[in-house]
Amino acid sequence: MDEFTFADIVRNLGVGAQWTVLLSLTAFVLGGVVGLALLGARVGRFAWLRDAARAYIELFQGTPLLMQLFMVFFGIALLGVDVSPWFAAAVALTLFTSAYLGEIWRGCVEAVPKGQWEASATLAMSWPQQMRHVVLPQALRLAVAPTVGFSVQVVKGTAVTSIIGFTELTKTGGMLANATFKPFLVYGLVALGYFILCYPLSHLAHRLERSFHGARAH
Question: Structure pTM?
Fold first, then answer.
């Protein structure tokens, strides 16, 4: 008789999926906060801030997430600080997410027609007022679809954290596959779990994109 029943496998994978969702939400929220700061630096008037933000974005977009994870997990440990897999995973994914969100949002801000900037300038608005009352409300509409779409990449990116021992969906699947000797079944369920998490987000992003283009066409 097998030690693990099908229900046991599903239940354990469900726990792993909960950690995947929690890590994804943490990285997306914190990455969004840092991404907003990057956006402000990228579109601001100070050249040194623009250059620093650009270097940050290029660094985290131009290196693999796995390497970033190793640098956080093992790099901080070299300083004599005990780092948990959860903390390292959250930090690495936050840095990764912020770089992409900051660049996505910068593109949306720069997609706002120049005439909107000029019109608001004629009303004697300051730069912060232009951003708050004119540019950002329009950029927000442009940013919704790609932001939701990128959230899928964040969810899938959590799978990499299994390398450092964080017990999310992929790590849980690996342990169950070793314990049950049923890798095809277990990893099939893991794939199904990621599909269940990601498909609604992908579908929502496509709907929002079609809705936006439809609105522009009219």
Answer: 0.90
The backbone torsions φ and ψ at residue 123, rounded to the nearest 5 degrees and listed phi first, read: -90, 10
Q: Which residues have CB under 8 Å from 43's CB, separation 6+?
A: 106, 109, 110, 131
Handedness of CA 87, 88, 93, 94 (dihedral sign): positive
Q: Are 64 and 45 in contact (CB under 8 A)?
A: no
What domains appear along the chain, each with residue ranges and CATH number? 6-212 (1.10.3720.10)
Condensed to tens digits (0 to 9), the pLDDT of residues 150-170 reads 999 999 999 999 999 999 999
Q: Using the CB atoms, write b or e for 53-92: b if 16+ within 10 Å.
A: bbebbeebeeeebeebbbebbeeeeeeeeebebbebbbbb
Number of neighbours of residue 199 by Cβ within 10 angstroms? 11
pLDDT in tens, 97-132: 999 999 999 999 988 888 877 787 778 787 778 777
Q: Residue 194 is inside which H or E element, if any? A: helix 183-217
